[in-house]
Amino acid sequence: MSRPFVKSLVNEASQTFRASGRFAYHYARGKLGYDSIFHELLRRGLLPEGGHYLDLGCGQGSLFAWLLAARRLHEQGHWPAGWTPPPVPRELRGVELMQRDVERAVRAFGPQHPVVRVEQGDMNTVDFGRPDAILILDALHYFSFEAQRAVLTRIRQALVPGGVFLTRIGDAGAGLTYRICNGVDRLVTYTRGHRLPRLYCRTLADWVTELQHLGFVVEAEPMSGRKPFANVMLVCRVPY
Ligand SMILES: C[S@@+](CC[C@H](N)C(=O)[O-])C[C@H]1O[C@@H](n2cnc3c(N)ncnc32)[C@H](O)[C@@H]1O
């Protein structure tokens, strides 16, 4: 049973944000503890070899704290049987629009971290480099359909063969759970300091078609945990 392990991983990763203040620490605890996507990434070994990962809309960098904590626990001999060993991160680059989040990340990891680099920027315009994995967790629907296509096209071009694009979307075809999910999203975005956003959503079938059209091999998996949401994780692989 991996539940006690996940708890210790949440503790270990959240400690990273002690230096960034109470909000950052408790945000990390809540996010990493209650959002199943983080432990699913590890349990299923979804991040490819290579270790150059780019998180677009990374917030304060909770994912990076998670991956580094996973390595530490693994090196200390704590790792659940049946889970793929955690990847060795070589470059963890985050791009985040909100300066406040970037500052929390810099305080957490320090300005000269050997692996982590979180920068203020707009994913619609920054250069992606040549990473092994790109992630966008819960942010694509803030962009117009044209902007979504442009960013997805650039992601496909940037990834190495065998690379992966991991994203989570709300399935606009899912009825009530989708409407709940959308309402919560608009509220949270507003309280994080953005304007009340218009959201550009699609059905799961539309997302999959769009991504396949760009040349990804797509796998979809429900990813709402125990919440009444319509979230789906899309694992989009670039063929060799
Ligand atoms: C729902 S939050 C998720 C944050 C983070 N991925 C996490 O798991 O804690 C979406 C994030 O995307 C950021 N974002 C929105 N539009 C962006 C853009 N154009 N470029 C970079 N980041 C953006 C928001 O500021 C916010 O931090």
Q: What's the quick description here?
A:
The protein is of the alpha/beta class. 41% of the residues lie in helices and 17% in strands.
The global form is globular
Q: What is the typical, i.e. mean, pLDDT?
A: 91
The SSE order reads: HHHEHEHEEHEHHEE
Provide the helix percentage: 40-55%
- How far the N terminus sits from the C terminus, by CA atoms, comes to 35 Å
Strand order of the largest sheet: 3-2-1-4-5-7-6
Uncertain runs: none
Main sheet properties: 7 strands, mixed
Category from helices, strands and their pairing: alpha/beta
Description:
- This protein has 240 residues and is an alpha/beta fold.
- A 7-stranded mixed β-sheet has the order 3-2-1-4-5-7-6, sandwiched between helices.
- The model has no long low-confidence stretch (mean pLDDT 91).
- The chain contains 8 helices and 7 strands; from the N terminus they run αααβαβαββαβααββ.
- Helix 1 (3-15) crosses helix 4 (62-75).
- It binds S-adenosylmethionine (SAM).
- The site of S-adenosylmethionine has 18 residues, from strand 2.
What's the layout of helices and strands?
Elements (H helix, E strand, L loop, with lengths): L2 H13 L6 H13 L1 H8 L8 E5 L5 H14 L15 E6 L2 H11 L6 E5 L12 E5 L7 H14 L5 E7 L5 H16 L12 H10 L3 E6 L8 E7 L3
Parallel strand pairs: 1-2, 1-4, 2-3, 4-5
Antiparallel strand pairs: 5-7, 6-7
Helix pairs in contact: 1-2, 1-4
The site of S-adenosylmethionine has 18 residues, from strand 2.
